[in-house]
Write a structure and sequence with these properties.
Helices cover 53% and strands 11% of the residues. The protein has 271 residues and is an alpha+beta fold.
Length: 271
């Protein structure tokens, strides 16, 4: 449709320019018609009007060039001297305008120019997007305690990278039990530095105990912070350990049974 309209406009322009060679009456109406045609064509051609900003005016100028050329030639025909040589030059110019417009088809050329610029802009944007590494999603935590562990100890370069807090239990006012697991399934919990934890928590090393979780593999570790509860005189050591683990497992590791325990004498209090 646009190609047909362009051909019709070219023929109409050639007729007007030919008529203007010998009749000044074509000058004003022909000039106004050429400018109006350019305005209407741009108005109904969003491809050119919405081309990338870097080439928009170039595309608009390319589209309007034949219309502006037609108007200039009409004015030139009126101002040119009325001689035989001048008439031949004007006729040759009209023929040149008609042939160039018919062959180059500036309207379609402007649309293709805009499409090429838009495709190049999209390719550059896609290349920039591919080259820019995507930021890893922010980790999510099931509880404030898990966030505390993840943001303070499990960060890269921290005391326990690659670990997560699976559970916790306030065993007593002075004793906190944490169950730490490996972040990747099937991997053991990496070594957690006691001196590092001591410095990070400002807690004496002898009040920090890191050991296995009874009945579980190396993918989890039990971390005791603070002074363990002292067994009642009438209770045996085994009963005291079993009772403490039952308190821990009630919330941190439900369903896990204590198989074996080792007790250490700790005489300092949790600070």
């Amino acid at each position: 449709m646009r190609a047909t309209a362009g051909r019709v406009a070219t023929v109409a322009g050639a007729v007007v320019l030919t008529g203007g060679l010998g009749n000044d009456a074509f000058t004003l109406p022909g000039t106004l018609a050429a400018l109006a045609t350019a305005g209407v064509g741009l108005a109904v051609n969003p491809k050119v009007r919405r081309s990338p900003e870097s080439v928009r005016w170039t595309a608009v100028s390319l589209y309007a060039a034949p219309h502006a050329g037609c108007a200039v030639l009409l004015v030139g025909e009126r101002l040119a001297p009325d001689t035989g040589v001048s008439l031949l030059v004007q006729a040759a110019t009209v023929a040149l305008w008609t042939g160039a417009t018919w062959w180059l088809r500036p309207g379609l050329l402007a649309g293709e120019f805009a499409d090429e610029a838009r495709a190049q802009e999209l390719a550059e944007l896609q290349k920039t997007t591919e080259e820019t590494p995507a930021e890893p999603p922010a980790p999510t935590y099931d509880s404030p305690q898990a966030a505390w562990w993840g943001q303070r100890f499990a960060i890269e370069g921290g005391i326990a990278p690659g670990t997560v807090l699976l559970g916790h239990q306030q065993v007593s006012e002075q004793c906190l039990a944490l169950v730490i697991g490996a972040e990747k399934r099937g991997q053991p919990v990496p070594d957690i530095s006691k001196p590092g934890l001591s410095a990070e928590l400002d807690l004496p090393e002898d009040l920090i105990d890191i050991g296995p979780v009874p009945g579980r593999g190396a993918n989890v570790r039990l971390l005791i912070l603070g002074q363990r509860p002292v067994a009642a005189p009438e209770a045996t050591t085994d009963d005291s350990d079993a009772q403490m683990w039952a308190d821990i497992a009630a919330t941190a590791m439900p369903g896990v049974e204590l198989i074996e325990a080792t007790t250490y004498e700790i005489h300092k209090e949790l600070t």
